[in-house]
Amino acid sequence: MLIEEKLPSDPDRAPVFIEAWLRRLRPLGLNDDQVFGLKLCLQEALINAIKHGNKCNKHLAVWVKIAADPRCLAVEITDQGQGFDPGAVPDPTAPENIGKNHGRGIYLIRQTMGAVDFSNGGRTIKMVMPLTGDRSGGH
Q1: What is the model's pTM?
Q2: Residue 46's CB: how many other CB atoms inside 10 A?
Q3: Which CATH number fits domain 2-130: 3.30.565.10, 3.90.780.10, 3.40.50.620, 2.115.10.20?
Q4: Across the strands, what pairs with 77?
Q5: Using CB atoms within 10 A of its CB, is residue 75 exposed (0-12), middle (13-18) or buried (19+)?
Q6: Fewest C-beta atoms under 10 Å: which of 41, 42, 120, 134?
């Protein structure tokens, strides 16, 4: 299964697209935890691309590619912004950063996905979720 879409940089449109993608991925038989994690990571990465990457400029686009098979799901999101250095994002769990609002999304993505990679000067994030194991929907 391969889904590729180009989205305008409009944060209000993101939830509609995410719900549509999740419906299209139902045949994979994701359990509740996998659906929750995927939705969280899609929201964080897509909103980061729209708000931080493209600065909500509706003339700029965000590309989303989702490739899935019974073993894994790979999501790639690319914006047209200036990019960033993911290594420079402060650890939100460090005591001095607990009250700050930056870095939490990337942290959550890294904790949820099996693998996360940034490329293209920080304009592209690739997230991979293994789909092996229990899919019964339990917590």
Answers
A1: 0.89
A2: 26
A3: 3.30.565.10
A4: 64, 125
A5: buried
A6: 134
